[in-house]
Amino acid sequence: MSEATRIPELFGSLVFNERTMEQYVPQSAMDVWRGCLKSGQPLPLSAANEIADAMKTWALEHGATHFTHWFQPLSGVTAEKHDSFINNAGGGRVMMDFSGKELVRGEPDASSFPNGGLRATFEARGYSAWDPTAFAFIKDGSLCIPTVFCSYSGDALDKKTPLLRSMAAVDRAAVRVLKLFGDDAEKVTPQIGAEQEYFLIDRELYLKRMDLRLCGRALFGAKPPKGQELDDHYFGAFRPRVAAYMKELDEELWKLGVLSKTKHNEVAPGQHEMAPIYTDANTASDQNQLVMETMKKVAERHNLVCLLHEKPFAGVNGSGKHVNWSLSTDTGKNLFSPGKTPSQNAVFLLVLAAFIKGVDEYQELLRCSVAFAGNDHRLGAQEAPPAVISVFLGTELEGIIDAIVDENDYTAPEHKSLRIGVDVLPAIPQDTTDRNRTSPVAFTGNKFEFRMPGSSQSIAGPVTILNTIMAEELDEFYAQLKDAPDFTAALHKLIRDTFSAHRRIIFNGNGYEEAWIKEAEKRGLANLHNTAEALPTYILPKNIELLTRQGVYSKEEIFSRHEVHIEKYCKVIRIEAATLVDMVQHGILNAASEYEAALCNTIAAKRAAAPELTCHVESSLANAIGSLNEQLLEETIGLKTALETVSDDAEPEKLLRYYHDEVEKRTNDVRKTVDKLEVLTASKYWPYPTFCELLFSV
Ligand code: ADP
Ligand code: MG
After folding, report:
1. In which element (H, E) is residue 149 found?
2. Which fold has domain 569-695?
3. pLDDT tens track for 64-105
4. Which of 324, 351, 437 to probe ligand 1 with, by most ligand atoms within 8 A of CB?
5. pLDDT tens digits for range 315-341
6. Of the N and C termini of the chain, which has fewer Cβ atoms inside 10 Å?
7. What residues are neighbours of ligand 2 (ion), with CB under 5 Å?
8. CATH class (in words) of the domain with range 7-158
9. Is the pTM of this model over 0.90?
């Protein structure tokens, strides 16, 4: 049997999915579990016990010795604490045990996870509870149970809880609106396909750079003579080491039930991408965490390191995570698919209008959902979408919207004018819509592609916001349509008015052009350049109203997140600055000075041996290095002082500004000087691998 024919068998072999559950769990417990999924009620203990027992049997058969509640705290990475199945059976014997109680609920200490003031210090307990809509899986010999994580008082301390709430909100809102069209869908689920970009570099080289190890990115490094100018890496053939890595990555992901589908080389040297087939938002979010973890783990086995940072190397492209998002019904319809019947198209135009209105009204919130230190290097940097949010629809769709707004004939000759809910839309070809890579939010035929998320971040945050704004606008539309005496007329007017009022957010041109930024400003669109500008808008009253009204966050949870995000930003900038100071002090100042001394020795030797020899090269190099090194010392002292003088009990938003305006700025200045020194210093004196070595050695 060839390896390839085994893939269907391999796929999901480490997941306790529905098919496997059917084999191991008694029918009666399966029925109870399915009922709970439908009603959203918690699982009764008796059924939980039966499922736990079945899970344990399956897990032991697959070599697992431990179990863990696997959750996603606000740190953005996953957390797990492993307990073994063993229990004392008396008489020096053990038995392997796992109860329903252990399955459905855990009590990890919450005090060491970010909580933004949500957890009173006297109550350190947190609760983790099984999310029965997500399947358990085996990773590194442990049965992992996907759970939500909350505080003693029930506040969400994780990223999964709000995501699930937002999925429920958009489900409720969309089903209600569909009913107005006579559609009997009972469930609407956001579907997500998250394309994941990453860098692979050699592990030996990686270990030589403290900045890569501590910060995940190179804090300095001159641009190599060759970057991505020749466009020879994008979609290029895989080098053998990369091919071997990708093969193993696919297999590991398939075992975990991740539908890894596409792999290719990306634009920058050393950069690659993996895209899975889309799935429901909750699964997609869990799986993207697993993808990131697996990418790193598999890399180690190949003596490689996988960098997920948004901007590991200045001068070449950074990495993003395109989040493809759509809404599908339990009857198999995609609401963002322009259909073939007038009624399908009416639904399509309505959800399109809702989406456009939502993005326009909550641009700042959407911007906040992708605002963190790593992504600041990307957004607005001529390679990723700009920091200004706009929606790309493509010329066909924009033509239709123009026709609706202006009540003109659309070009399709057979129609006098386009009456929504009566006429069929002219065909919208899917392939012409995907070409604008400069747009932050692009319609790509039957889904929106949100291109701002960074490669390292959890997709739960951005997806939560997309779901929530959609729920909000659909609720508003429902209120306006539900009692309309003439539904079609009301629908037409609503869609037209909405497109007309929110036309400003639609932009089909080149988002990298300076002219667009000016135009966007004229249109009154927000341009939140960086995290320091974005995060204060997170708690705008309209955002708090939206999130609380939709039941996605409580007010306390919003403020806690605001605080956690600010704190995280300040810490990252601080760690980067401190790391750079350390590397300058222990490596660079000394390397430059040794090289300078060597040059001076050469000059002295030359003069002694043959006074007529010129020493022009040596002396001009020594001069340049000497003065740059002095400048570096001064700038580094300045940076160090900036780190020492900060008062940590300052207002969070003041700290945010301080770290951005003072610390980050100074870090950048130091970097520039280091890069100049690197260019001048002879290779044998430079203590760190250069970008050329890092990017071109795998
Ligand atoms: P590219 O963006 O590279 O051209 P595609 O647009 O075909 O590639 O696919 C990108 C991602 O979008 C994949 O993860 C794919 O599964 C996902 N995707 C495709 N259709 C949908 C949909 N209706 N809803 C959500 N995601 C989707
Ligand atoms: Mg895409």
Report:
1. strand 142-151
2. Four Helix Bundle (Hemerythrin (Met), subunit A) (1.20.120)
3. 999 999 999 998 889 988 999 999 989 999 999 999 999 998
4. 324
5. 999 999 999 999 999 999 999 998 877
6. N
7. 322, 449
8. alpha beta
9. yes
